[in-house]
Amino acid sequence: MIDEQVLQRTQRMFQELREEIGRVIVGHDAVIEGVLICLLCQGHALLEGVPGLGKTLLVRTLARALGLEFSRIQFTPDLMPADITGTLLLMEDEAGRRHFEFARGPLFAHLILADEINRATPKTQSALLEAMQERSVTVGNNTHELEEPFVVLATQNPIEMEGTYPLPEAQVDRFFFKLKLAYPDLGELEEIIVRNTSGAPYSAREVLSREEVLAAREIVAAFPVPEQLYRYASALVHATHPDSELAPPAVREYVEYGASPRGGISLIAGAKAHAFLAGEVNVGLEDIRAVFAPSLNHRVILSFKGEAAGVSPEEVLDEVLRRVEVDALR
Fold it and tell me: What are 141-145's contacts with CB under 8 Å, separation 24+?
């Protein structure tokens, strides 16, 4: 059982957190919500957007408002795995005896901005796999645990593909959400210009502590989910497979591989966090729908025919949501 007073107090703190982030970041409400959901669900986010939309500022602001350690890694083709995980250094003590000492890399932080992750070679990209999945880094014969919360927010430019290394499906699947940043509208653009040309920009203050974030995670994990919503989420994921009896025509025609079981886990866990952020006390159908696209848009792999037809994963998922939502709840 969740203590109602504790729940309401924690929800108010996260509402205050969103307001504090909004004093720095203009717009991107859905992206901010998605990042907070990942934080609450021990997940990672893949941020897709052209340069200059405030991705670095968003992550830095979130870290400052939470009192967490922030680290930014600029991925380049010459970046090596040891540059991010850390390495063993040969040291000498006062008696002249030599020994190896581990020097921690930038992965040892709470919020990691992996900027332009698709610019690094597969060897360096794979160095993130253990950290993202196991929350640990192995160097030599020793495994070093990463302190929670540990969230990787990786960015990639969807336009510039020259000199990039597309992420393998196994690594993409480890991202909890894929969030797309859009250009600001006219009013938001004007506000951005005003804020950044009228004296020193506002710097976020600390609203929550690390301990309060970890406590909020436990609250979210305990959110009740009706049995029919588990069935609904399973049906949505199953319908993304072209050989499924639930698959709509668009999936059968344009999809090569559907979402993995991680997609279903992301749906339910994300729906819990969405309900929490919305001030609710349990998970509803609208929470599943709200996190459906960011949970699965990077887990559906289009066929050659789908790529040639210019169909997007979002369009396919829209049809899945329209076709499955009624039948699965019966």
Answer: 142/102, 144/86, 144/102, 144/104, 144/108
| Cβ neighbours, 10 Å, residue 312 | 13
Mean per-residue pLDDT for 214-220? 93
Quick one: tokens of 115? Answer: 């900027």
Class of the domain covering 223-329: mainly alpha
Identify the residue whose tokens are 């405030």. Answer: 54
User: Which pTM was predicted?
Assistant: 0.90
At residue 329, the pLDDT reads: 53
CB < 8 Å & 24+ apart, contacts of 79-86: 79/120, 79/121, 79/124, 80/123, 80/124, 81/123, 81/124, 81/126, 81/127, 82/139, 83/124, 84/124, 84/127, 84/128, 85/127, 85/131, 85/137, 85/139, 86/137, 86/139, 86/144
Query: What's 4-76+109-214's CATH class?
Result: alpha beta
For residue 253, the model assigns a pLDDT of 92
